[in-house]
Amino acid sequence: MPLREPEASEKQPEFGRGNRPEERTGETGKTAGAGDEAPANGEFVVRKYHETIPMDLLFRDAEPAKRPPPRPRHAGAPAPADTARTRRRVPPPRLDKDLFERRGFACSGWWAVLVALLAVAGAAVLVWSGGLVPVRLTELLRLPERSPDGLGVWQWGAVGGCGVVALCALGGLTRGRVGSARVLSLFGRYRGTVRRTGLVWVSPLVPRRRVDVRLRHWRSEPMAAVDARGVELRVVVFVVWRVTDTARALFAVDDHVAYLREQVEAVTARVVSQLPADAFGDLGDDTDAWGGLHDAAETLRDAEAVGESLSRILAAECRAVGIEVFSARPTRIEYAPEIAAAMRRRQIAAIDAQHRDSVITSVLDAVDDTVSRLTRRGLVALDDYERKALVKDLTVAFYTARGNAVDPH
Question: Long-range contacts made by residues 401-408, C-beta under 8 angstroms, separation at least 24?
Answer without folding.
Answer: 402/359, 402/363, 404/356, 404/359
